[in-house]
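FW: tagging you since you asked about this chain on Friday. Here's the raw sequence from the shared folder, copied in full. Didn't touch anything.
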Amino acid sequence: MPVAAIPLEDRLAIEDLAVAYCTAVDRIGDVDGVATLFTEGGVYDLAELGLGHFEGRAAIRGFFAGAFPTMAHNAHFLSNFALVDYAADGATAQAYVHGYSRGTDGSDLEVKARYTFDVVRETESWKIARVGVKMLIPTG
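HL: got it, structure written out here
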């Protein structure tokens, strides 16, 4: 479907979902706030970052339950948001992310990547079915 034909309410809701994901991660500690953004069978694919591949809301929740205690500060900055596929019940969006994280041990991580969000409509709201990360500029 051409971008111009996508209902504005859906486009904004999908973009808001991507922002909600980043904001929930940046709050550090709100495990349920992150997990509830995903479908029950959602996938969180951080393999390109060397952090694993998690399937199911419980596994995603478990990842963040383990990761949040090691995080002191996080900041995600999204740009170049685009819907690349759309249907009334599902869509794929991409956005560039410039992310910073400081660990409780003082270590820093800076990521320049493209997020891909596969989302589905559940009842009256959109949920994340899959988040994938593709590095744009390698770290290190």
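FW: The first strand starts at residue 38 and ends at 45.
HL: agreed, and Residues 3-137 form a domain with the Nuclear Transport Factor 2; Chain: A, fold (CATH 3.10.450.50).
FW: great, closing this out.
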